[in-house]
Design the sequence.
């Protein structure tokens, strides 16, 4: 599988450093990484808006013209690109509130340490690594399959299982208990006996509720809270 990575920074040496680090990572780990470099936000935004394949963006916050924070918000709110992950770059560390709406994956502080960059990218692959796996089911004698990457969450209502994507809801008969834990390696978390969420589409994670990118509020039961806290610590660990 090819990972399409965009690098956007107005400092060419930063772009070169990130590109070189990813190239070394690719050669060392056998990971197919395709990088495209931009030096301003407008060209980056146009590239993504035109439908070009994008998985991950290394995005400088302090760009000339439109800022990286604005681009992140536009990707989420205008283009609805909730599956693209963002790693922000800056020489400052006081942007937390500005960046919250764009739900960044991580943050790199200049001068960038290559070891830190490699660790962040490895964590990205661990959580969002591509897979050919599908959610497969039968309904009305028809065989169906949905790429796991499109699913926001799965919930059950009586004997009906609903698979919720950004644009559609698919349903079939079955027991959600048979799905618990099945897609953990693809970033799906069981948060309630009746709900399994694709964590990459979570906009806000609270102790008793998760708000998804489409605004849906998913209850978190007391039973699953300890495990969710452990997973959050793993996601947010500082290297």
Sequence:
């Amino acid at each position: 599988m090819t990972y399409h990575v965009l690098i956007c920074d107005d400092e060419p040496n930063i772009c070169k450093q990130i590109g070189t680090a990813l190239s070394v990572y690719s050669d060392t780990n056998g990971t197919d990484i395709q990088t495209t470099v931009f030096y301003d936000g407008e060209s980056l935004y146009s590239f993504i808006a035109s439908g070009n394949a994008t998985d991950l963006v290394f995005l400088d916050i302090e760009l000339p013209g439109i800022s990286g924070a604005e681009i992140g918000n536009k990707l989420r709110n205008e283009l609805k690109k909730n599956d693209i992950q963002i790693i922000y770059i800056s020489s400052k560390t006081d942007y937390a509130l500005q960046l919250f709406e764009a739900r960044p994956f991580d943050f790199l502080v200049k001068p960038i340490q290559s070891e830190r960059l490699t660790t962040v990218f490895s964590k990205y692959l661990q959580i969002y690594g591509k897979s050919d796996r599908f959610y497969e089911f039968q309904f009305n004698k028809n065989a169906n399959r949905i790429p796991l990457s499109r699913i926001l969450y799965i919930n059950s209502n009586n004997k009906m299982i609903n698979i919720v994507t950004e644009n559609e809801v698919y349903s079939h008969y079955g027991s959600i208990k048979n799905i618990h834990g099945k897609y953990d390696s693809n970033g799906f978390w069981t948060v309630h006996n009746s709900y399994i969420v694709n964590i990459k589409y979570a906009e806000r994670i609270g102790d008793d509720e998760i708000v998804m990118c489409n605004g849906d509020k998913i209850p978190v039961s007391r039973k699953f809270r300890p495990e969710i806290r452990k997973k959050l610590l793993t996601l947010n660990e500082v290297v």
